[in-house]
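Now read these lines:
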Amino acid sequence: MSIAEPALWQGLALLQHELLLFAGVFFLVGALDDLAVDAAWLWLRARGRAVTPRRSRASLAHRSLAGPVAVLIPAWREAAVIGQTIRHLLETWPQASLRLYVGCYRNDPATIGAAIAAARGDPRFRLVIHGREGPTTKADCLNRLFAALTLDEERSRQRFAMLVFHDAEDMVDAGALGLLDETIAAGADFVQLPVEPLVPRHRGWLARHIGAHYCEEFAEAHGKAMVVRDALGAGLPGAGVGCATSRRALDWLVARHVKGQGGETGAGLPFASDSLTEDYELGLAIAAEGGRCRFVRARGEDGRLIATRAFFPHRFDTVVRQKSRWVLGIALLGWDRVGWAGGLSEYWMRARDRRGPLTALVLLVGYALVVLTALMGLMIAFGLAEPPPLTPLLVAVLAANGAAFTWRIALRFAFTAREYGLVEGVWSVLRLPLANVIAIIAGRRAVFAYARTLRGGAAAWDKTEHDAHPTAAGRFGPARP
């Protein structure tokens, strides 16, 4: 075909060139964005401001709390894990001034029964039954918990000093409550601790790696990006677990919603019930009201992070559902719900949060290029065509992307290996294609879901099912020094 079909070959060569240029430029823009965060983190490290301190878990666990603390856990169809979460939390955090509020739905008797059985009559446990049929949204369930909390405050004539947020599948850290209380008592209004996804070693090979691909994402995000964000003074996106707010911060959010809804009945609640990412919006909303936000990263004596641990989804479909919900709520609905505010650093961080759909598109183009280039390579190998020439601009773009990709892979390995060991560090690199495919499919699903919301579709709790808890013996490896 080198002579017989020149028009077809020229068309393929032109298509390859344009796709290479498109993908190369946008990959490079994203790489420069990441390199800016890397540079900021390295500068903080050089100045001693990004060093993770060592703290005594025992001292933090027995710290006298600055005031009463409420822990809020919304739950829908979590009978398989809620019991272990409640038992472990109440045993790990023994403080008498703690109150655990677990929100269940009236049409979910299995979760209600599991929660009551796990509490074993502990007076610190408070079961809250939602009057609506579930599921609504997580934000709506949190509003129900907040209503119960304020009623208890009125009855006892004592306000909570801090509210802590967790999910039904979490394994809390013994030092976490003391660290959160210490930071709130020092003047912070929102605090986020690291989240450490666990490698699901009890799963099959494929499920193990699908679930474990969260490890490298959180290792880098909570080991670098959030550290930089904290140092810049930008608003911190909450993870929904392992985070806490001052009591006054929730009052600010209540007042904000009352003002925004014109004082309507039911507006006096802190969360927007139609939000799909109320955790992400929580820290940003508090920052917008002038609150001080902190990301606190510390290690115990054993070298293990003081963090919230949990198994993340391990099935391909549930991973895509979860990530598409994140993209929908943060990158797409975030434009409408959170908007743009603050200084240059705030604009930068929010732009980073919202690049998910564009990243998915560029990744899709990149994989299409792999297929096209392989096809053209076969044609060249069989002598059907001559290799098309590359322009100097394209060569420069490809070289820059190659260098940036090498740097990105090195950091991915380093951050993962630090928390999970050398073997998982290597796997984190090998899992990169899997993570990219998930991102592409989740981005597409999020865009279609966003289109449905524009047509008036209602928000729903598209939650992930959980069937295993980390407290089960042998479910996670030993701490690394």
